[in-house]
Design a protein that fits this description.
109 residues, 2 strands, mainly alpha, two-stranded antiparallel ribbon
């Protein structure tokens, strides 16, 4: 699978749920390439904006979409790395906001 195919697949499945890609397509493609690199490196698509340990169980919370995406979308309108945005942000019904790291400190390597 190449980056464009991953983009199309994720776009279709996420937009059906009211979740959109960031409007900065260059950023989106950089993050998708990083996801694919992590898949090749670790065997799973770990969040590209967090440091994966290589331990599948320890990293389960950061498999994209990570466990923190939905609360980030609800509270801030975007996920931590900015790959995904909420429908309200997509439709410009809200402003973009800083998204703090939610991952517990003991899980950060």
């Amino acid at each position: 699978m190449n980056t464009e195919q991953l983009y199309e697949m994720l776009k279709k499945t996420n937009e059906a749920k009211g979740i959109y890609f960031n409007k900065d397509k260059d950023l989106v493609f950089e993050l998708l390439e990083s996801l694919m690199n992590n898949k090749e490196r670790y065997g799973y698509m770990a969040c590209p904006c967090r440091l994966a340990s290589g331990d599948r169980e320890a990293d389960r919370d950061i498999f994209c979409p990570c466990d923190y995406r939905q609360p980030d979308l609800e509270e801030f309108g975007a996920c931590y790395c900015g790959l995904y945005i909420s429908e309200d942000l997509h439709l410009k019904k809200r402003e973009a906001a800083y998204v703090p790291e939610r991952r517990p400190v003991d899980k950060i390597f």
